[in-house]
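We treat protein structure as text, and this decision shapes the records that our systems exchange. We quote a single record here, exactly as it is kept in our systems:
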Amino acid sequence: MSNKDIFMHVPQLGDLYIYDVLFAFIYPRAFVCQSEYDCKYLFYEMDSEDDKDIWLVSKITKKEYYSLVDRKKPIQKAYENKNNFELFSILKDYSNDNRIELVQDGKEWLSHLPQIPVFAEKEVNDDIANETLAVARETGNTTFDIRLFPGTDRHSVPQNILSDLCSAFTSLTSSVFGTKRSEALRVATASGSCVVRFSFPDQINLFNESNAINEMAVLNNVLSSESIYEGLNVVKDQKRFIRSYADFLNAIRKTYSDVQFSTASPNSNEVRKIKLTSDTIKNRFNDVKGIYSIEKEEIDISGKLIALDIITKRFKLQTGENIMSGNVELNDLNNGKFEIPMNYNAKIQVEKYMDEKGKKSKEKYFLIALNK
């Protein structure tokens, strides 16, 4: 880090450099410093006068840092449950030759932190999305970024996972039109965080279209939906798509990480962003592994609606002694008024997952219409 200006030299910590500013008012108020030994320290301004500044400082891990910039936790949380060696204050005395003093009184300053949760002003998610769009425009290629969240080393991707992702994603997109790619996808890892970037060689035509745009539209429909069948009706090689989708999910699952997918085309003004938790990735993988085909049918059924959650979009419908549960796909879910318990006529979309021998392994239910 010798090419950067030293922010502060603390005898106990060594040279410190500004790594990231979490929020500022006129000047930085909360920020992260990094030492020459790659240790990160969170600074929060506790007192500021003409002749001195005092910061509450805590040593933080890389995972803690990303939870702050991703706004998953307020800044105050990073100071909790720290021992005396990881929590302290630093005073800079401008009236005494900029004297620096580290004091082991961090726990005494904790009560002076704001009571209202304070979050970082920036959000890396948006930075990454903007970068995806910028790359798409600069290269003239549709660009797809896979960003891994805490749970893995975000500054590198294990080679075996990178290889599995490349293989699965290439097969996945090729299966949409059932053809082999004439040119290989370009893949890179973006610096600064764990981002795997795919660039499609397909150039847009006079109608602002390309195979890549259409392939990603299908894949994004699947990624954003609980139902893999959402995009299968336009996929040419459905068996290959399902197998590749399972391999794709499996590669991400092995990182034990939440994930954000960002897609941008060179002629677009917006970025398609999809966020999935590690639990969602695991559950979807478990659903589709070993599946070779999916059959869909719609059924009309009468029963008593006993549960309807508009937050998780789940339902339970009792028919006699049986209870059917699944996902809600009602267009007017937020605007409609439904009484519970109450008898309804429901239209259910049933997805039947078939194994290699053509036997049904499981079913998933989607509520698509509900009337009294």
Summary: The mean pLDDT is 84. The two ends are 68 Å apart (CA to CA). The first helix runs from residue 62 to 69. The chain has seven helices and 17 strands.
